[in-house]
């Protein structure tokens, strides 16, 4: 009898360990190395906010946010930080994709930068090689939007997929043009000893916009709601931590996976906090999401009827998470 009890306890412990392993959540991050917006996730990890809320989270870099979103849709990972224009397109073109945005980043910082003095205006980009993350990725989508300024499309250029290494390719002279984040610019200028000419800023083309979102499947939202609430709570605490100037050195240290030096990271943190790049609230205002839905329909990425806001956004996770951190 005693032996049976011990065996039962061992079996129960094994089952408990198995259950714990199943409760691990992988978040797919955009870019190899990850782009700077992912600093928030690394802060949540390094400052122990995921652990504080009792969730086991693994951060995994993907070639692009588009690849990460596909990983969520296929069930290979549970969450991703992916371009919201791509997500609304995926759900519009395939309702069975079952994706929803639960936390968002409304303010894109994209620009088309040039190191070639002969390529200085939008029309000059036609036929030229332009560095993007991946075909159909966030930079590619942004390129398509920005080229509306001169009635061109991304297909009118030679897109060169480089993951997050566009700035490296520009510094080495492989390509003259790239779709850049603002924190790419000072590094390119310092290393190349050349001035980056900003040909098009996305915010000059589309005033109301949206950049990125934390994405899960509706199935995961239904079955693992409590844990998703805890993950978003950790994101909220990380944003507050980043916003506090006294934490700048710790945030810069957390940003190390993005390959930014400590000084470059501190500069980027200051710029991004000013523009509220990391949202103070849920970051999924209807006006912004509706704007990108309309844009993706206009540029032809959405083939049929576009998905309505309430079918691609779920604010309930954020609302519950906010209660945890208040």
Short note summarizing the structure:
By secondary structure, the protein is of the alpha/beta class. 47% of the residues lie in helices and 16% in strands.
What does this protein look like?
By secondary structure, this protein is α/β, with parallel strands linked by helices. It folds into two domains: 2-107 and 209-325, Periplasmic binding protein-like II (D-Maltodextrin-Binding Protein, domain 2, 3-Layer(aba) Sandwich), CATH 3.40.190; 111-205, 3-Layer(aba) Sandwich (D-Maltodextrin-Binding Protein, domain 2). It is 47% helix and 16% strand. The chain has 16 helices and ten strands. The chain has helices at residues 2-22, 39-46, 49-52, 65-73, 84-93, 138-146, 166-171, 184-192, 202-205, 218-223, 225-243, 248-254, 262-274, 286-298, 309-312, 316-325; strands spanning 24-30, 56-62, 79-83, 99-105, 111-114, 129-132, 158-161, 177-180, 197-201, 212-217. The strands form two sheets. Strands 2-1-3-10-4 form a five-stranded mixed β-sheet, with helices on both faces. A five-stranded mixed β-sheet has the order 7-6-8-5-9. Helix 6 links the parallel strand 6 and strand 7. Helix 11 crosses helix 16 and helix 12 crosses helix 13 (262-274). The longest helix is centred in the first third of the chain and has 21 residues, at 2-22. It starts with a helix and ends with a helix. The model is unreliable at 1-22 (pLDDT under 50).
Strand and helix order:
HEHHEHEHEEEHEHEHEHEHHHHHHH
Residues in helix, %: 40-55%
CATH homologous superfamily of the largest domain, by name? Periplasmic binding protein-like II
Provide the CATH architecture of the largest domain. Answer: 3-Layer(aba) Sandwich
Shape: globular
Provide the residue-averaged pLDDT.
93
Structural class label: alpha/beta
Biggest β-sheet strands, sense, barrel: 5 strands, mixed
Rounded to the nearest angstrom, the radius of gyration is: 21 Å
Note poorly predicted spans.
Answer: 1-22
Alpha-carbon distance between the termini?
50 Å
Tally the helices: what do you get? 16
Tell me the count of domains: 2
Tell how many strands the DSSP assignment holds.
10
Strand order of the biggest β-sheet: 2-1-3-10-4
CATH fold type of the largest domain: D-Maltodextrin-Binding Protein, domain 2
Beta-strand residue percentage: 15-25%
- Output the CATH class name of the largest domain: Alpha Beta
